[in-house]
Amino acid sequence: MSLPPLPESAIEIGVGAKDWRAAVALSGEALARSGAAHPGYAHEMIRMIEDHGPYVVIAPGLALAHARPGPQVIANGLSIVTLKEPVRFGHAHNDPVRVVLGLAITEAGAHLAAVAAVANIFNDSSAIDQLAAATTPAEVQRIMGVTPE
Amino acid sequence: MKIVTICGAGIGSSGVLKINAERALKALDLEATVVAADVSTVRTVAADAQIILTSQEFVEAIGKTNADVIVIVNLFDTSELAQKLEDALG
């Protein structure tokens, strides 16, 4: 199973975010730009963290921003936002975050195949450093194993 | 053996935990069913589970359970998962 779409419009490199909310909002805006989600999805992603804490920081330097499938999701999709300055989410071990991976999924039943493809990339522990250091969207796509359109 | 992975939405991080737990179990040559679920359903889904894998944030909400609750820090690190699973099962 392949990775959810990660078009260039869903990638933003070296942006400034004043806090974790701003970082997650940028990742939601990227999903909206690529057509994977409505703008309101960003708010749902932020609310997941407000409700449950910073568990979305699933590896050192990486946040997996996502919410549940629902009306705010248009299509399966990924976004990647790399931050100019790392941002703290309040995670005990994996802060600060340098890369925010946004995920929109249309149905819960299908998410495991998408997540397995994501895991294939990040089981290589150097992937997060490589993404944080990338200077172009094409480079991000290459690290993620995506062929540019 | 049944293992349940828990996160807030039941997709995303619990899915990552499921995939990587299955990879760690394979490396350990162990058989188990791994189910991803969200924290609101933990009582039903994990009623017959031996192990719950989760992030620190959900330990309190999971509460009292007969399963071993194992906290994973780096969800992509299959060696951390393998080590903690081996400790729990050994």
UniProtKB/TrEMBL annotation, chain A:
The keyword Cytoplasm is annotated on this UniProt entry: yes
PROSITE patterns xrefs: PTS_EIIA_TYPE_2
Origin: domain of life: Bacteria
Domain (PTS EIIA type-2): residue spans on this chain: 4-147
Predominant location category: cytoplasm
Function comment: The phosphoenolpyruvate-dependent sugar phosphotransferase system (sugar PTS), a major carbohydrate active transport system, catalyzes the phosphorylation of incoming sugar substrates concomitantly with their translocation across the cell membrane. The enzyme II UlaABC PTS system is involved in ascorbate transport.
Protein name: Ascorbate-specific PTS system EIIA component
Species assigned in the record: Salinibacterium amurskyense
Lineage per the UniProt record: Bacteria, Bacillati, Actinomycetota, Actinomycetes, Micrococcales
UniProtKB/TrEMBL annotation, chain B:
Protein name as catalogued: PTS system IIB component (L-Asc family)
Keyword Transferase: yes
MF (Gene Ontology): protein-N(PI)-phosphohistidine-sugar phosphotransferase activity
Matches recorded under CDD domains: PTS_IIB_ascorbate
Domain PTS EIIB type-2: 1-90
UniProt entry keywords in alphabetical sequence: Transferase
Organism listed in the record: Salinibacterium amurskyense
BP terms from Gene Ontology: phosphoenolpyruvate-dependent sugar phosphotransferase system
